[in-house]
Amino acid sequence: MREADVTGLDMDMVSLRTTRDTLEKDVPSIRLEKDSELREIYQFGRKLGQGSFGVVYEATHIETQTKWAIKEVCRPAAGSSKVKMLEQEINILKQVNHACVIQLKEVYNTANMIYLVTELCTGGELNQLLRQKKYFTEDETRHIIRSLAEAVVYLHKKDIVHRDLKLENILVKNSEDDDGRINIKVTDFGLSEQMSGVGIDNIMTETCGTLIYMAPEMMSGRGYSQWCDVWSIGVVMYMLLCGEPPFVSKTKAYLLEEIMSKEVPFNQPIWSKVSDGAKTILTCLLKVDPAHRMSPSQLLENPWITGDTNVPATPSNVLKMMREHLKEVETGTQTPEDLSFTSSEDTLGQHLVPQADAPGTECNHAKTSPVRSSRPCTALVPTKTTKQSGGSLQQDKQKNGPEASVTPSTIVTQAHASVKASPQSSAKQRRRQDKKDFSSGQNLSCDLSKSQNHRPFTSSKSKKPLRCSKANSYSE
Ligand SMILES: Nc1ncnc2c1ncn2[C@@H]1O[C@H](COP(=O)(O)OP(=O)(O)OP(=O)(O)O)[C@@H](O)[C@H]1O
Question: Residue 243: which domain range?
Fold first, then answer.
């Protein structure tokens, strides 16, 4: 047995991204001469499951008597699509270190096999648990969704988009911990993408994932960003609460049509027992337009998630909220200097930019809005600048901190200029125009298809033919 080189992995298997090396955890990658040598380190137990790559076993580390899961993978042919997925999975698992994401302990390489040693999740997959229970209570769902949102916030901060979030890829660490809570671990990063570019390079075009969890912008094939994961959180949450997916259709085209034409359905009797708070979150997560979707950070701050019932009521209708805000300025309860609009504009023209992570802000459009995609869920600010900065994701991060990277405006509608309205005269002018826009209702709609028709997304990523990567999951 010999330690692998400093890069940590077999270089014929994995081409590491040099920029990420320093961020990676110290996951030992060990070369074994024979497969039998691993049996001297671990005692293999029951089979836990089978994936498209290989078999997963429970295993006991002989020296420490600790239990692990070992994924045994036949080394795929060099250059095959499986190699890319495995590379991606290992590369990403080496970088992540979060309580709600599966932990990779070690990687073993032999001439024919690769072994991934990960933490053991004795509770199996979340979909199995859901099948047993039929549906989860709001309390159980809250805990699971909070953990999932925490994992997604963490991943997105690392520029990792999971792209295949679903019940099957959420493992249960233990069926129920001491508090009766279900501890989850996000797994299966085979279809994940790490965004290494800036601005438009962070728009992906590959269609991948599992249909019922797939965001509409991903299905449309016009380009998508990390907001596809938010849609999937919405589908997972919906399924936890009622046991069934919100939208079902046999083909991608029909499913897309269904999603575009329908409200999030709350017709089944079970929904009468679900709180409005939970339903509101669902409609905010399942927004057709990703620019109007609730961010994972906002989700974490939502009173339904935090259980904080003392959050001051905010007007749920954004237009109403903005009018009240302007009225305060007019009546002098707020000075112009108090205002700090983040203005932006893309080349598509006027566009409302959700301000990142306004706590307690809720959307309440499910019953009031006839068009599901036309109402934003986040605190919105008007956009009136005429300058296009070409600002990038990285530039935004430098200027505004890491959270800036997860605003839809930076990704979905490409680069925006973020300008603080500090000089009084220009701020006055801008606000006057903003007020005009708000009172006329202008700007309050962002139609994905219109936007994209106007300026189709392009990507530096290669476009490959549709291929089946695993049962129910596919990628282009
Ligand atoms: N760490 C783990 N602890 C417990 N069970 C696991 C663990 N990892 C995987 N499993 C089980 O083994 C099964 C196969 O996992 P694996 O990761 O190989 O495939 P998959 O996630 O189903 O899909 P893919 O084909 O994309 O690899 C899973 O469905 C799960 O039930």
Answer: 126-306
